[in-house]
Amino acid sequence: MNGPALHDRSPALPSPGHRPPRRHFVPHPPSASWRIALPHTAAAVPVARAVVRTALAELEYAADSDTAELLTAELVANAVEHTAGSGPIELVVELLPSSCQVEVHDPDPAPPGDLTHPAEGAPDPWQEHGRGLLLIRTLSSSCGHRPTASGKAVWFRLPVVPAQRRPL
Questions:
Q1: Which residue spans within the chain are E strands per DSSP?
Q2: Average predicted confidence (pLDDT) for the chain
Q3: What's the half-sphere exposure (Cβ side, CA atoms, 13 Å) at 88?
Q4: pTM
């Protein structure tokens, strides 16, 4: 090559007191999961609520516990009331960095009524039943169901709420 190279430059080395720019580390909540067999009776509802409450209380960042407990109670009560058999149902709670997912497994492969598609008309305010799936659809960030080897799993997901923004 004749003449000097125009872009021939050695990489600059940092000066002896140079510090790289500070990066802000935002900790993510750890992932964790719980799986518990529940009796196929109404006694499963308060046990499931307690499991969810305890799981969420362990973390600095968690989903809203009151909402998680309410929706879990609805899923468990539906599994107990609307599925045949006496075998246990199963509760699965997964705490992920950005959400909490709760699943209830039961032995009935039939999909749950109107979980993902609203029913026609509003529920009758004088009836004892008919609002559980509406609550799940309305209060969760997402919900659904999927088949399993032994029946189905019905689930909902709630977003993580930073500790300072959680209700007291």
A1: 32-38, 89-95, 99-106, 142-148, 151-159
A2: 78
A3: 10
A4: 0.73
